[in-house]
Structure formats: structure tokens, C-alpha cells
From TrEMBL:
InterPro entries: NAD(P)-bd_dom_sf, SDR_fam, TR. The lineage of its organism: Eukaryota, Viridiplantae, Streptophyta, Embryophyta, Tracheophyta. This is 3-oxoacyl-[acyl-carrier-protein] reductase. GO terms for molecular function: oxidoreductase activity. It holds the Pfam family adh_short. It is found in: Plastid, Chloroplast. Its main location: plastid. Keywords: Chloroplast, NADP, Oxidoreductase, Plastid.
């Protein structure tokens, strides 16, 4: 592997990562996901490939669960984190006129508030590592019209850096 792409010796947290992460660059990765079943299947697959990966279940829409997650990360990675990947994204598709207040709260707390709060919580760990980065995963839904996912588009569009 080209050394410029190596993450050897780095640590990373990937939210919503049980569906796939870039584990082949050498970093020690912790993945959180709301689905324990999917998480366990993915961890087993990645461990068989020799990846340095751990995981825990976390509903990132829950502020207390985000706080527990970051305590876990601090313990696993000795108080340091190099990379936070705010990857989680959920969408309940339906026509915009059919969304209710609970739909709005769910999408915003999961897709937007969680990324902001986890970025705040991870700051001391990123700073302690000496080389900290936050990656915000956006979506094409944030820049083009989606006829049945307007709240998702709103939340994920905030992750776009110009």
C-alpha cells in the first residue's frame, strides 16, 4: 500500500458503520451501529480478514448513548482518537406533506444533532492524539431534490463543506 494513504497506528470511530467501512488502511477502528445483529455479523467478517476492529451498539439519536459511546472510545483508545467519521444517516421516505413532528425530530437528532454532538464530545480525544480529523459524510440528497426525503436532505445537506 502507498504510504501516503496509510492510517497505520491511527484510531478511528465510525458511526453507523456496520454496513461498511474502509478498514484496509491500517487504522484501529471502532464501529457503532444501532443494529446489534448487523454489527456482530460485520465485526465477525472483518476480524476474519485480520482487521483491527471493535464495535458497540449505539442509538446516536440518544444524547446519553452518545456520551456513553465516547466514554467507551476513550477507554479503548487510551484517551486519544485520530479520526471521527460521522457516517450515520437514516431516512424514512414519504411525501413531504406526510411527515409529522416525530419524523422531523428523528431525522434531525440522528442525522444532524448526533454529528454535531459527537464532534464536540470527541474534541478532547482528537486534540490529545495530536493529529485529529473529523469526516462528515454527506449525501447527494443534500444537494439535489428528493421528492420523498426532504428532512433527510435538510439534515445531510448541512454536512457539505464548500
Amino acid at each position: 500500500m502507498d504510504k501516503r494513504w496509510s492510517l497505520e497506528g491511527m484510531t478511528a470511530l465510525v458511526t453507523g458503520g456496520a454496513s461498511g467501512i474502509g478498514t484496509n488502511f491500517g487504522a484501529r477502528i471502532h464501529v457503532c451501529d444501532i443494529s446489534e445483529t448487523l454489527l456482530n455479523q460485520s465485526l465477525s467478517e472483518w476480524e476474519k480478514k485480520g482487521f483491527q476492529v471493535s464495535g458497540s451498539t449505539c442509538d446516536v439519536s440518544s444524547r446519553p448513548e452518545r456520551e456513553i459511546l465516547m466514554q467507551t472510545i476513550s477507554g479503548i483508545f487510551d484517551g486519544k482518537l485520530n479520526i471521527l467519521v460521522n457516517n450515520v444517516g437514516v431516512v424514512h421516505t414519504k411525501p413531504t406533506t406526510e411527515y409529522e413532528a416525530d419524523d422531523f425530530s428523528f431525522h434531525i437528532s440522528t442525522n444532524l444533532e448526533s454529528a454535531y454532538h459527537l464532534s464536540q464530545l470527541s474534541h478532547p480525544l482528537l486534540k490529545a492524539s495530536g493529529i485529529g480529523s473529523i469526516v462528515m459524510i454527506s449525501s447527494v440528497g443534500g444537494v439535489v431534490s428528493m421528492c420523498c426525503g426532504s428532512i433527510y436532505s435538510l439534515a445531510k445537506g448541512t454536512h457539505i463543506n464548500c
